[in-house]
UniProtKB/TrEMBL annotation:
A Pfam short name: O-FucT
Membrane-related topology note: Single-pass type II membrane protein
GO biological process: fucose metabolic process
This protein's pathway: Glycan metabolism
Cellular component GO terms, alphabetical: cytoplasm; membrane; nucleus
Family: Belongs to the glycosyltransferase GT106 family.
Subcellular location: Membrane
Keywords on record: Carbohydrate metabolism, Fucose metabolism, Glycoprotein, Glycosyltransferase, Membrane, Signal-anchor, Transferase, Transmembrane, Transmembrane helix
Classification via CDD domains: O-FucT_plant
Identification of the protein by name: O-fucosyltransferase family protein
GO molecular function list: glycosyltransferase activity
InterPro entries referenced in this protein's UniProt entry, alphabetically: FucosylTrfase_pln (IPR024709), GDP-Fuc_O-FucTrfase (IPR019378)
Organism: Artemisia annua (Sweet wormwood)
Length: 417
């Protein structure tokens, strides 16, 4: 339930914030929610954000292609004034171009209001991670949830098709798992994870990483990455994991991801255990998907809806989508989300590989014990790991959008923001 108990009168109608959202779909979504809260704190009118067209995804979609623009404006009318375009008379005036600090607090943005003394428009070139995860006023935290979970709805066409695909998936046996299988070429190259790959595949990924300018880390030790739990599970590892959790071979597994690296060769290590593996291209018709081709963010929105509505969501790596879907599922009543303990799994998978452990009851007990508290039950957000001090700790805190408990969730059954 969404409560309009924070209605305000807008004094900042002559102050405007323009934004260029950066990143993929879910990085942009959480960044836009942050900018809604920032506009409120700075008493400004928010202009509908410009979406990222320069990232890895090269998606030319505008805001209204992905989101229900009128719903976004109307839903926030008691919190923040939102308009579609900057007034024409202000388009050519000088703007304050401001890279707001990461993990900013209320005090920081109160300080930033000094910019209104010299400017009428502030332009924000990056929207992601502009707000702190913790120690913000309760009304601001709840506004972030209102913005992300209610106002920022997908466009009617995306929402309609997404729900139609959910119904088709459920028609198989009434249930399905959404598996965010991050075994994609860009993910493996970026993370330096080459475990189980051929020398030729490893070389291909290394060259991609070295030739991608905005990826800063070039030399990566794959073994160290895996031992630290920083690599996505392989298709084979996912198959072993699902079986150890007790899922039958007939389980419908929807793959919420892009093209799997190595195609059928690597995917077969999962499909031999779970033959009912489906992609959106197998659930939707070619005609239904035609309008979304070459629009990665719109395709990702379909995956988001399907993952949100699944009986179980399992992300094989912690990325923007994994965090966003987990947080949304928590908000909707702590729907089951199983987060594999990738670091804990390394020893188990190595023992299986060298014959020290067999797939059976012993493995099941190990996996069940390892994941007893990793299935989306209510818990407060985690702080940074021990030993991390200064501003660096903000980066390592659990994301507010991954777990908006308790600010936006009063209980597992009744949610009020």
């Amino acid at each position: 339930m969404f409560l309009n108990n924070t209605q305000i009168s807008f004094q900042g109608r002559d102050r405007y914030i323009t934004v260029r959202s950066n990143g993929g779909l879910n990085q942009m979504r959480t960044g836009i929610a942050d900018m809604v809260a920032i506009s409120r704190m700075m008493n400004a009118t928010l202009v509908i954000p410009e979406l990222d067209k320069r990232s890895f995804w090269q998606d030319k979609s505008i805001f209204s292609d992905i989101f229900d623009e009128d719903h976004f404006i109307d839903s926030l009318k008691w919190d923040v004034r939102v308009i579609k375009k900057l007034p024409e008379e202000l388009v050519s005036i000088p703007r304050a171009r401001k890279h707001f600090t990461s993990w900013g607090s209320l005090g920081y943005y109160e300080e930033m209001t000094k910019l209104w003394e010299d400017y009428q428009v502030i332009h924000v070139p990056k929207s992601d991670s502009r707000l702190a995860n913790n120690d913000l006023p309760l009304d601001i935290q709840r506004l972030r949830c209102r913005a992300l979970y209610h106002a920022l709805s997908f466009s009617p066409s995306i929402e309609t098709l997404g729900q139609r695909l959910v119904e088709r998936l459920k028609s198989h046996n009434g249930r399905y798992i959404s598996l965010h299988l991050r075994y994609e070429k860009d993910m493996l190259a970026f993370s330096g994870c080459t475990y189980g790959l051929s020398d030729a595949e490893s070389k291909e990924l290394r060259l991609l990483r070295e030739n991608t300018n905005h990826w800063k880390v070039k030399k990566i030790n794959s073994t160290e990455q895996r031992s630290s739990g920083l690599c996505p599970l392989t298709p084979k590892e996912v198959g072993i994991f699902l079986q150890a959790l007790g899922y039958p071979q007939s389980t419908v597994v929807y793959i919420a991801a892009g093209e799997i690296y190595g195609g059928k060769t690597h995917l077969s290590e999962l499909t031999t255990r779970f033959p009912n593996v489906l992609f959106k291209e197998m659930v939707a018709t070619e005609e239904e998907l035609r309008v979304y081709l070459n629009h990665a963010s719109q395709m990702a929105a379909l995956d988001y809806i399907i993952s949100l509505e699944s009986d179980v969501f399992i992300p094989t790596h912690s990325g923007n989508m994994a965090r966003a879907v987990e947080g949304h599922r928590r908000f909707l009543g702590h729907r089951k989300t199983i987060s594999p303990d990738r670091k804990g799994f390394v020893e188990i998978f190595d023992k299986l590989e060298n014959g020290q452990l067999n797939e059976g009851i012993a493995l099941q007990h190990l996996v069940e014990r390892l994941h007893k508290k990793r299935q989306g039950a209510p818990r407060k957000r985690e702080g940074p790991p021990d030993g991390i001090k200064g501003r660096a700790r903000f980066r390592f805190e659990e994301s507010f959008y991954q777990n908006p408990y308790p600010e936006c969730i009063c209980s597992s059954e009744h949610m009020h923001i």
